[in-house]
Amino acid sequence: MKLTRRWLGYAFATAVVTMPVMASAQTPETSYKGQTLTILVGYPPGAAYDAYARVIARHMGRHLPGAPSIVVQNMPGAGSLTAANHLYNNAAKDGTVIGTFSRGMPMQPLFDEQGVRFDPLKFNWIGSAASEVSVALAWAQKPFKTFEDLRTREMTMAGTAPGADTVIFPTALNAVLGTKIKVVTGYRGAADALLAVESGEADGAGGISWSTLATSKKEWLTEKKVNFLVQLALKARPDLKDVPLVIDLARNEDERRVLELIFARQEIAYPFAAPPGVPAERLELLRKAFMDTLADKEFLVEADKSGMTISPITGEEVRALLARVFASSPDVIARARAAIGGKAN
After folding, report:
1. Distance (Å, whole) CA 226 – CA 197
2. Distance separating alpha carbons of residues 176 and 126, to the nearest angstrom
């Protein structure tokens, strides 16, 4: 009887202690029951950002209390600036809307503030699905086989809009490493830019993520329809060991620092954020559900089938990286800004 009374006393005490917690679990701030979570994507369907968002959307709901349905809403425009501005200023701040946009968008205020209506450090960062390696590539029939070819003759590359990797990265190569790339802008997304390459409208493209190629242009890889000229990231892919890494092409320490600042965005390749003002309880739920999703076995099977790279980065880590970037010396920031400041044709 002593043991039973002791157990009953413990159970009663536990119930008393946990009742408020259980009650709070049913509050609007900590449950999504009956609600819909919307993921804004700053690109049209078919882009790598869209692919990541859709696979995550199919699995993340079961990791949130209340198991909400999740819908993906495409909001392309200005290299995803439209979506970033909308998420920051107009989206609901109750944790029912999150978004993903260009990995370079958080750094955009450092390089060109035109049209930017957000403070990157005030977004509520949820995390990033992966880091990324982008490439500069040329259609195999074009006379561009190595990086050195970019220094000896003009190459036309298809780009999207100012602030997008397909514009910033080739422009940076021109300014820092002396290449002769002509960037033609106006393509709605990576899919349209790659179509321009395939049709011969452009010689190639720069700043195309490996995930985009792996998910939407697998035949380009297997049939060797393109030549890879340079890897655009801080870390190289092991399976591209014969393709030079942009950081290693720096001819001095100044060039290296500038390139590191420009390509830091690759470490947060597929960032997800919530607007400012989201309740702390909701933000923590979103962050946990995001990371749990990226470790979910069913999710990982689907991601692998889609050719996606998954190397999760927490929301806190995203913000810490941005804090370091924005703390760069004025001299390095000025050089990086100048490097990508040339107007595209």
Report:
1. 9
2. 33
